[in-house]
Amino acid sequence: MILRYGIKLVTVTKSNPENVGTKVSLGGVRGGPDVKTLRKDIWWLPQVASGIGLALFVIYATWTAFRNGNYYDGAHGRDYLSPFYSPCLASNCTYKTASVLGTWWKLSPALPILIFPAGFRATCYYYRKAYYKSYWLSPPACGVAEPHKTYSGETKLPLILNNIHRYFWYFAVVFAIILTWDAVAAFRFGNSVGMGLGTLVFIVNAALIWLYTLSCHACRHLCGGHVDQFSKAKIRHWFWKKVSVLNPHHMLFAWLSLVWIGVTDFYVYLVASGTIHDPRFF
Amino acid sequence: MADLVVRLWRGDENGGEFIEFKIPAQEGEVVLDVVHRIQATLAPDLAVRWNCKAGKCGSCSAEINGRPRLMCMTRVNQLPEGEPIVITPLKTFPIIRDLVTDVSFNFEMLKKVPGFKPKPREADGTYRMYTEDVERGQEFRKCIECFLCQDVCHVIRDHEENKEHYAGPRLFVRYADLEMNPLDTNDRRQLLVEKMGLGYCNITKCCTEVCPEHIHITDNAIIPLKERVVDDRYDPIAWLGKKIFRKSKKVETDAK
Amino acid sequence: MVNASIETHEFDVVIIGAGGAGLRAAIESIDSGAKTAIVCKSLLGKAHTVMAEGGIAAALRNVWKEDSWQVHFRDTMRGGKMLNNWRMAQLHAQEAPDRVNELEEWGALFDRTKDGLILQRDFGGHKYARLAHVGDRTGLELIRTLQQKAVTTGAEVFMEVKIVELLHDENGAVSGALGFYRNNGSFVLFKAKSFILAAGGIGKSWKFTSNSWESTGDGHALALWAGADLIDMEFVQFHPTGMVWPLSVKGLLVTEGVRGDGGILKNSEGKRFMFEYIPQMFAAETADSEAEGDRWYEDKANNRRPPELLPRDEVARSINAEVKAGRGSPHGGVFLDIASRRSPEYIRRRLPSMYHQFKELADVDITVTPMEVGPTCHYAMGGVRVDPDTAKATVEGLYAAGEVAGGMHGSNRLGGNSLSDLVVFGRRAGLAAAQSALEKGSSKLSESLVEDALNRALKPLNNPEGENPYTIQHDLQETMQALVGIIRTESELVEAVEKLEEFKERVKGVGAKGGVKFNASWHTALDLNSMLTVSEACAKAALMRKESRGGHTRDDYPKADPEFGKTNHVVRLQGNDITVTPEPLPVMPDELASLFEGAAQPTGITESKEVK
Ligand SMILES: Cc1cc2nc3c(=O)[nH]c(=O)nc-3n(C[C@H](O)[C@H](O)[C@H](O)COP(=O)(O)OP(=O)(O)OC[C@H]3O[C@@H](n4cnc5c(N)ncnc54)[C@H](O)[C@@H]3O)c2cc1C
Ligand code: SF4
Ligand code: SF4
Ligand code: FES
Ligand code: FES
């Protein structure tokens, strides 16, 4: 089809399709004043806030990852393993989940496993949005001009790698199971079953990790979103509907689980280092 | 009621400027009413598009205080009181005059969408689709083609050169509509990545923020499309599964 | 400006209008092998059809097996108070189901029944639930589907071009149309063997209307100026439920779907007044108690429908009467209440855009508060007189479909019958126009005709000190609202005709400041010509019809007159004068007439005391 839009005056006697290719025409003068934005609200606030939040977490996580100590509290009859170090896979672990890495690994045992949750979050659709806006400034806010000359989005390396988010999700499910196990283990008080404030912290942590993992967009796609005709895939539709309830809150879960994983780790640190005493409920 | 101060962009491709109008406020008005009153009394040749005045046709798109909005759905009393109302034309498209822009980019892109190709009817001559089959697509079909999402999308708002290979959120909504349609037999994923620039979108959600129809453009259209593309080209497991268990849909990339 | 510099295009078929009718015609015309262009005043996809809400009527029999084209035909004729062109009503009822199914094949996603078929809803005047719909945005679905189909089929679309005049060749056939690009003011000439008018309605001539700025009656006027007949121009539908507040949206439509889904009308005393206004013609199938009316929503087989779902003219008149009797709402309407009758979830799901519209524009939550509504000018039943089978007008080379065509709806249109009208007759027009074009040789247009038309169009611009077109438009709307509104009377109509003469003089002196580029005042100045023409046609036809029927209610002749029931009023342009001639209505063949046995003849104004 040929759309004709009355911009140019072409004198033609017959309609001449060759005049109107399907190529999108570029250029033309834009209207409005030549300013970055006309917005008058504090459009930068959300971006600055999430930028600072993320930065604080990265700083904390780095400290924790290299701390290589006080990540397991077994001394006070507790069984609390910091989520940053779970599963603990090297021989130098205070608490060994399984010594998969053997003795050659000399650095902090947090490092090899953190690749997975870090990769999961770094490729997460929500965090992508957050860092593109807060750090990359593309865009700094909606309707505010970005400072870059060119822009290729996620079409080139390295950002095209964000497409592998789904693989990290597969691992994330494994991690969610492990962290659930850690929460169960937090009920172990020596040889008896009990519960301390730490146990509660672990349960909340596992719950938030699940909420974050299940509300993931890749999860939504894998469990049913890929289907075109739901009436022919009843079970997948059921799953999709459930995940679709969680999915709109993905950002919230992303933040809560992020903050809480830090809280959990810090709590373990405080207890393991003897700074505080973990109150026991029963 | 006090007077309203309206700062309107007037001009064309040869340049323009803000003109300030003072006009008495009236109760219950939307911005389009104010613009109309300016047109009827102070600036008869003011160029502005509108049709339905009910948020149904998507004609009256403009930027109000720097935010892309429908003028007919923006009540004056929602805007900060006592401050001038600043109205400018959509920034992403070339200006024609005053508040009217040349939005043909969008129509060109719409023209390139490979059409709907239904599967054959059932034996009884009907198409059987159930509520759960159509619900998802119905959200996308609410689109009134106001092109506010296209306007706000930084990929083309800030980078004119991307218009050549980037379809934009409205178009992704249209592609999602077709790709998820239970009857359609076409596969447009390759086209989406290679010609329509799906990878340029960095899911920053400004389109969703401005959509007057409250379509969850990013969450329900763009991200699912990205995931479908992953199925197609970045996920060997999904690819293998498809090869073994399902016949894939027809790939048709030739734009008409 | 000289003729040689005008951009000229040659086609087999040129379609003026890109609403449902125009797009459907284009698809058919292209399919038939004709080179086809679509011309529209706005951008593609913005035509008035986009605003249609409730649904598209077709006897699909998905919800009610008892339904059939015969029942649909009967409902349509009775809704039109038997003044419809029977053949059009028949074709419409017979072909609508196919046209709706075809939309689905082109990608439309209608709401579904439990069995996976297209769901149908109840609407006023339709015996069975018959309206295929998509929530309350059916028009959007229709226009998008057709637009996308037309785009893939290969239509050429000329957007934002206003056609100002149709031109004849030496044999008197319409073979040219002159228009201009609204964007830059440059003129464009279309030469074609067939022209299809699909230019929509005339509502903009009234002050309170549900119609957009485009509905200035251009199609009606173009046809009349080109020598074609118009019929039934006195019949203008006032939709009973338009918003009455805030003032800036007064007239904006509240879909009949609200009533179809359980909404009721109440006056300021809280009384459900419609039971007082049931006319005899519909008494047999209308509930006579609130209890029965309420039961109907659940059990339609054993109860009669509530009177809120009477045809539109009846409901509009009743509301008018309540307000006149001083029982209106604060802003001069009545209350439409669904909040107290349905759950908030139900309302939001079934009527999303109504919810949205009231929330955003009036700050009213319809799940909590009743809406204030009153009649608003909505639809022109009258229009170009066409041959039912081919949609051909009475001049060679001209066709008309959609709201611009007359006859199909008689004196009153049933809700949902317009969208189906668009696709049924749009298709027929496209087919016939293409076939005839492919058989015809080309013809010649006289250059001087083009130049005259062009100069006429430029006149307002050459008279920048002339009267402000917005002022004239405003005054014209006031006049039509006051004198040719929902209730009419001899003296007022005479006054209207006189006033319209004055307007003609004023329009001669209209001026537009500024240049040719997207100059709204110039566009408005040109729209005035057609608005004035249709207003005059309407007023004069109304003056002649000394009875009350459907969309024409006379205070001085409150009853329907069987003699007028056999008469169409034909409007023609003779010299410079618009004349009205009564002509006999085509007579229905017996096998169709037999469908109406036992049905009472129409009554006029519904005065409760008379009918009960
Ligand atoms: C609010 C509302 C709700 C409605 N709801 C329903 C419903 O639920 N069911 C139903 O059946 N009906 C409904 N109707 C009625 C129905 O929508 C219209 O009657 C129908 O859409 C008219 O379609 P059309 O194709 O004839 O013309 P339109 O859709 O009005 O299109 C007219 C076209 O002609 C073009 N045009 C006009 N003049 C010129 C010119 N001079 N030069 C070039 N182009 C020109 C315009 O640009 C436009 O493209 C509703 C109407 C309204 C206002
Ligand atoms: S989410 Fe993607 S499409 Fe939407 S505005 Fe952002 S970059 Fe553009
Ligand atoms: S998706 Fe929303 S914002 Fe974009 S064009 Fe459609 S209605 Fe407008
Ligand atoms: S985890 Fe955020 S989208 Fe997958
Ligand atoms: S005028 Fe139709 S959306 Fe504003």
Textual characterization of the structure:
The complex is a heterotrimer of chains A (282), B (256) and C (612). Chain A has 282 residues and is mainly alpha-helical. Chain A is 47% helix and 4% strand. Chain A has 2 domains: 1-35, no CATH class; 40-272, no CATH class. In chain A, the strands form 2 sheets. In chain A, strands 2-3 form a two-stranded antiparallel ribbon. Chain A has a two-stranded antiparallel ribbon with strand order 4-5. The radius of gyration of chain A is 26 Å and the shape is globular. With 256 residues, chain B is α/β, with parallel strands linked by helices. Chain B has helices at 31-41, 104-111, 131-140, 148-152, 154-157, 169-179, 189-194, 206-210, 217-233, 236-245; strands at 3-12, 15-24, 61-64, 67-70, 85-88, 95-97, 100-101, 186-187, 250-251. Chain B is elongated. Chain B starts with a strand and ends in a 5-residue tail after the last strand. The mean pLDDT of chain B is 92. In chain C, helix 2 crosses helix 3 (86-105), helix 10 crosses helix 11 and helix 14 runs parallel beside helix 16 (520-544). In chain C, the strands form 5 sheets. In chain C, strands 1, 2, 6, 7, 8, 9 and 16 form a 7-stranded mixed beta sheet that branches. In chain C, strands 15-10-19-20 form a 4-stranded antiparallel beta sheet, with helices on one face. Chain C has 2 domains: 6-235 and 381-447, FAD/NAD(P)-binding domain (3-Layer(bba) Sandwich); 240-377, Succinate dehydrogenase/fumarate reductase flavoprotein, catalytic domain (Flavocytochrome C3, Chain A, domain 1). Chain C is an alpha/beta fold and 612 residues long. At the A-B interface, helix 3 and helix 6 of A face strand 1, helix 2, helix 3, helix 5 and helix 8 of B. Strand 1 of chain A pairs parallel with strand 6 of chain C, so a sheet runs across the interface. Bound molecules: flavin-adenine dinucleotide, iron/sulfur cluster (SF4) (2 copies) and FE2/S2 (inorganic) cluster (FES) (2 copies). The site of one FE2/S2 (inorganic) cluster has 9 residues of chain A, from helix 3, helix 4 and helix 6.
What's a concise summary of this model?
Chain A is mainly α and 282 residues long. Chain A is 47% helix and 4% strand. In chain B, 34% of the residues lie in helices and 16% in strands.
